[in-house]
Amino acid sequence: MVNIESDKKLAERLKQARESMGLALENLAILTKIQKKYLTRLESGQYDKLPSGVFVVGFLKRCAKVLNLDANEIIDQYRKERGLSDQKDRQTDGFGGVKSGKILSGNKSVFVITPKIFSAFVALLVFLAIFLFFWHQMKFLIGPPKLILEDPANDFVTLNPSLTLKGLAEIGANLTVNGRRLEVSKEGKFFDYVNLSAGLNLIEIKAANKFGKSKLISRKIILNQ
């Protein structure tokens, strides 16, 4: 094990140990799998510019292994220089990752988002996004097109010979009113007037998509004159 004077500052000890082994920062970064910018901050004592304490402990363990230093000794020195409690960062594994996802602070348990937890969360979001995409595509393929008739909402009797139709339909669907083609707007809306005859009028609104699926809504309107 490399004998580096323990009365030196931690940053100085790390740099001296690296240089005594003839390692450049780039090489140490490769061996420890720690980004060079973090190693630079460790060797310059810029601890406030490093990730949270549990990650720093992991960095120090990796550096100690490569530089042949006593890991417990340099971690204790780091805590002393930072004024940290010994209880913090104890729940780490051999690479600085948090085993339980928590660290101890006094008598309280504080949840920590570790790389593993973050990666699992991102993977879950990706899975849900893919699932929702395919679910939407399957629903689009096997289900009827969207068709909602907002007005008139029900069958009714009227004295007005002109009937207003409005509603929502799937964009791109073939929409007809009693066989007459009706355009659907870019917002998925439709609007039309229908002239009523005296007595019973059957109004049929039909939407069909390119996959041969269709949906029909009908209204019975009685015109009293």
From TrEMBL:
Keywords: Membrane, Transmembrane, Transmembrane helix
Annotated InterPro entries: Bact_Cytoskel_RodZ, Cro/C1-type_HTH, Ig-like_fold, Lambda_DNA-bd_dom_sf
A single GO molecular function term of this UniProt record: DNA binding
PROSITE patterns associated with the record: HTH_CROC1
Transmembrane annotation, as ranges: 117-135
Protein name as annotated: XRE family transcriptional regulator
Annotated ranges, domain HTH cro/C1-type: 14-74
SUPFAM superfamilies: lambda repressor-like DNA-binding domains (SSF47413)
SMART domains hit by this protein: HTH_XRE
Species the sequence originates in: Candidatus Azambacteria bacterium GW2011_GWC1_46_13
